[in-house]
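name: query_chain
kind: protein
chains: 1
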Amino acid sequence: MMTSSPPAASDSAPPEPAPTPPDAATALAHRWAPWAAAAGGLAWFLWLGGARAIPPTRLDWAVREDWAAGTFGWLFYRNAPWGLPLTSTPNQLHPHGTSVALTDGNPLLAVLFKPFDALLPPDFQYFGLWLALGFALMGWFGAKLVSVVSDRPTHQVLGGLLLALAPPMAARLGHMTLCSHWLLVAMMWLHLRATPDARAAKRSLLLAAGLTAVGAGTHPYLVAMLAPLAMALSVRLALGRVIGWGQAALASAGILLLDMFIFALFGYFVGGSHLGAEGFGQFSSDLTTLFNPQDWSRILPSLPVARRQAEGFGYIGAGALLLVLLAVVGSALRFRELRDLSWRRAVPFTVAALLLALYALSSRVTWTGQTVMDLGAVYEPFSRLTSAFRASGRFIWPLSYAVMGGALLLWLRQWRDRAWVRTAALAVVVAVQAYDVREDKSELRRRPDGFRRLAAPEWAEMKGHYKHLALFPPQVQWVCPYNEPLVNAAGYMAYRLGLTFNSGYVTRTPPSIAEECNATMRPGGLDADTVYVVVRQQVGNFLRAGARCGVLEGLPVCVAGARTDAFAQALGRTPLR
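structure:
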């Protein structure tokens, strides 16, 4: 990743001649180039199936599989009282409670939208807009990155499009909060742009802190990558003698403290939940990941990987691989054009990206899925950290974008005296990239709309008479037996009626929940404020405990036998005995 921007005071390269002031038309084109690249990123998102996700009142697409976790995190948060941590939801996974942060519900947006809850329709989600914004910002910051070495709007637009077409971002559509890869490209831009004085350095560090804050408010894996890159930026500024080493250390410490404060404020540590989980050494990157399409390519064949290594997907695309080849060959043919590069600007980011990539390989280093090195003893002392960030393969993303961005900037610099060569090659590369990436693999195209909604009018009679809706035994993904259609249907009904709910999909749960998976109703155990949706094997226990049970929409439902409200009477019309 090289630049041609004016070097800082410590750079050895002589300053380039001052450019001729652009005319009005050229200045307008410069201003609109990032917007054009952002429009291209948005168009790519729509082609991936994003059109159905953008309307905020369209909820059905987001109540499926992993998406349902974040969606219900947001919906129950709407009904939850304000408190600390800010995103705590005691009404979800009741009585244990959880938080938006532990459901991948984008706590930053949840906090921003909650004050307007009374103005929002019941079916409202912000995830589609966030995804669309992420693809647009990928194009935007890709264009800003290219502006480091080329002031031509065409190059900026094409470069932004290439990065927006990156397969790792499209492949993460299954996890809505993990698609914010623009944060990594924006951080790379901060590293490589010119910072001639302390004032510019302060602006860069403030922007870096802002990026890490957004990452901390979106998903912990993002900030786990962004924080080291932000610290590397302070090192880059200190190496360039723009700031002192003491200032760099203070900036790094400040960024880390800010991120930890956001973690605590947004509820990542709520409810006694264990942050660790199994899987480190399996959710990893393979050594072939940068050029292994794993079925995402129309051009290149896929190589085998181990089970669960899809989390370490880092394929940069056939177009980007072509650009890497062109840049390597061009470096040999036009070495003189690279002699005055400010190489030092790229070193800290590159080192940080390589270290993160090393972690992405995990304790079990593989080549085409076969173990070639076992580093278990190295990682054993850090097991608490590795269990918290068990999907280590995701840490390959900074290196993927470093390779893409580095090849892009290197190519543009090599042929700076022949604009037509740069433009023609980039146009071909973007075309190859667009053709290569299989849009049919997008989760937005593959997953169907719709989830079961409980439609019987009797359900509405719970409102005002009961406080809780519970599946018995509770059904919690990855902890207890889990019937997704039932959980989603009952969870949505609990949300609409303002009831608590004891089941769902949460990324981290308190250990005590596992003890409830095989609970049995005993005499005296019925709660008068709870409506129970019961597995059929438990109906007899509920009846012996004195419950009144009936069938609604094919589901066994029980309440305390002493209840005489309209809902209890409705159960009596289809009794279970």
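note: Residues 215 and 367 are 31 Å apart (CA to CA).
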